[in-house]
């Protein structure tokens, strides 16, 4: 009998994802919608044009691509947006993804939210294995909150935070430091959030997408904020790095942890472990660059995931070294034309 070798199609590599600079990609952020019920002044224009719904991946497709990443060694998955909790039936996706927590493949399933819908979904999120979430809150003043978000209700967000805490979910607050807007209350926010058992991370405004105002006017370097806070608090650097952009300090007076995300004053790219998927299936290998890979058409071209894995490999092989953000008066256009709500921060 002739020994005829069977023609084997190249098996997709299930190896972990390592970029050309040796960085392991273990963290995927998924923007499940570009829509939002707020219009934060630093994030969006008042009359934002959102994507037509027909362009969105279905929840099944979001699950399929996310799960392909989990298969390739992604350990942390963050759902974001736009506002993730305004995506219809999002809980179906969270429930499906939670199988990877149960199997142990995924260490963390989490989300970043503005908190407006949190009271409604907190219990179910906890039930799906979500243990901590990030809530964005830039001020403690309801009037200011309305002005910054253009349409948010402070009390509703507070209810959401309390509901999440009651459900056993730990919360980290994120606040964008804005010159002339909330700079006078940042120390109060440190005291309040730590007093409520929540860590706080401050973020520098980043030049993403056209908005209705000039970002230069609102840009507040966190080096300045840190210097001011250190007059009131004892801040000690913590060695802890999450592979993310934040540097942490402990605050002796409150016993809490304070993070600084400083893309403008300190480049955070050397330890970057993440990539970002949009709600249309576009993969951005860097928040601060335009290069992207279209995973939607690849995924839709075949029922098997082979081509998808190959496309993921090719994308990771193009992950750039870092971003080139600039905010100054000589550059009136944003460094990156898409809004933060497309890639979800
Ligand atoms: N809607 C959710 C929320 O606000 O938490 C999730 C998406 S939002 C785009 C994610 C984070 O990005 C928020 O903490 C928000 O404050 C931050 N953000 C939005 N635009 C930004 C910008 N231009 N510079 C810095 N941070 C920004
Ligand atoms: Fe919406 Fe979040 Fe952007 Fe505010 S920061 S407009 S809540 S996506």
From TrEMBL:
Pathway connected to this protein: Cofactor biosynthesis; molybdopterin biosynthesis
Residue positions binding S-adenosyl-L-methionine: 42, 82, 136, 206
Cofactor(s) this protein cannot do without: [4Fe-4S] cluster
Taxonomy, superkingdom: Bacteria
One GO MF term attached to the UniProt entry: GTP 3',8'-cyclase activity
Keyword Lyase among UniProt keywords: yes
Residues the record lists as binding [4Fe-4S] cluster 2: 269, 272, 286
EC number: 4.1.99.22
GO biological process: Mo-molybdopterin cofactor biosynthetic process
EC class (word): lyase
Catalytic activity: GTP + AH2 + S-adenosyl-L-methionine = (8S)-3',8-cyclo-7,8-dihydroguanosine 5'-triphosphate + 5'-deoxyadenosine + L-methionine + A + H(+)
Binding site for GTP: 29, 78, 112, 172, 274-276
Keyword NAD attached: no
Keyword annotations: 4Fe-4S, GTP-binding, Iron, Iron-sulfur, Lyase, Metal-binding, Molybdenum cofactor biosynthesis, Nucleotide-binding, S-adenosyl-L-methionine
Domain Radical SAM core: 20-246
Note on cofactor: Binds 2 [4Fe-4S] clusters. Binds 1 [4Fe-4S] cluster coordinated with 3 cysteines and an exchangeable S-adenosyl-L-methionine and 1 [4Fe-4S] cluster coordinated with 3 cysteines and the GTP-derived substrate.
Listed SMART domains: Elp3
Binding-site residues, [4Fe-4S] cluster 1: 36, 40, 43
Function, in words: Catalyzes the cyclization of GTP to (8S)-3',8-cyclo-7,8-dihydroguanosine 5'-triphosphate.
Oligomer and partners: Monomer and homodimer.
PANTHER family in alphabetical order: MOLYBDENUM COFACTOR BIOSYNTHESIS PROTEIN 1 (PTHR22960:SF0), MOLYBDOPTERIN COFACTOR SYNTHESIS PROTEIN A (PTHR22960)
Family statement drawn from the similarity comment of this UniProt entry: Belongs to the radical SAM superfamily. MoaA family.
UniProt protein name: GTP 3',8-cyclase
């Amino acid at each position: 009998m002739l020994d005829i070798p069977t023609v084997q199609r190249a098996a997709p590599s299930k190896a972990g994802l390592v970029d050309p600079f040796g960085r392991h990609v273990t963290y995927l952020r998924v923007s499940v919608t570009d829509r939002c019920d707020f219009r934060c002044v630093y994030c969006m224009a008042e009359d934002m044009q959102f994507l037509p719904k027909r362009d969105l991946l279905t929840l099944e497709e979001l699950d399929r691509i996310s799960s392909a990443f989990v298969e390739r060694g992604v350990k942390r998955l963050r759902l974001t947006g736009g506002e993730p909790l305004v995506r219809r039936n999002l809980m179906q996706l969270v429930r499906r993804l939670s199988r990877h927590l149960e199997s142990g493949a995924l260490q963390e399933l989490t989300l970043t939210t503005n908190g407006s819908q949190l009271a409604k979904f907190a219990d179910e999120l906890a039930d799906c294995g979500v243990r901590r979430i990030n809530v964005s809150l830039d001020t403690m003043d309801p009037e200011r909150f309305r002005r910054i978000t253009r349409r948010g209700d402070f009390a509703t967000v507070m209810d959401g935070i309390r509901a999440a805490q009651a459900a056993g979910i730990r919360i980290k607050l994120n606040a964008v430091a804005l010159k002339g807007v909330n700079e006078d209350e940042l120390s109060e926010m440190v005291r309040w959030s730590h007093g409520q058992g929540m860590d706080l991370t401050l973020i520098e405004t980043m030049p993403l997408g056209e908005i209705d105002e000039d970002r230069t006017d609102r840009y507040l370097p966190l080096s300045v904020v840190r210097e001011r806070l250190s007059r009131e608090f004892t801040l000690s650097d913590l060695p802890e790095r999450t592979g993310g952009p934040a540097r942490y300090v402990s605050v002796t007076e409150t016993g809490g942890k304070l993070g600084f995300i400083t893309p403008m004053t300190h480049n955070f790219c050397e330890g970057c472990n993440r990539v970002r998927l949009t709600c249309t299936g576009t993969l951005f290998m860097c928040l601060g660059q335009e290069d992207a890979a279209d995973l939607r058409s690849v995924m839709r071209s075949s029922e098997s995931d082979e081509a998808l894995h190959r496309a993921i490999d090719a994308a990771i092989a193009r992950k750039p070294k870092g971003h080139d953000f600039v905010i100054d008066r000589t550059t009136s256009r944003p460094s990156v034309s898409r809004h933060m709500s497309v890639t979800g921060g």
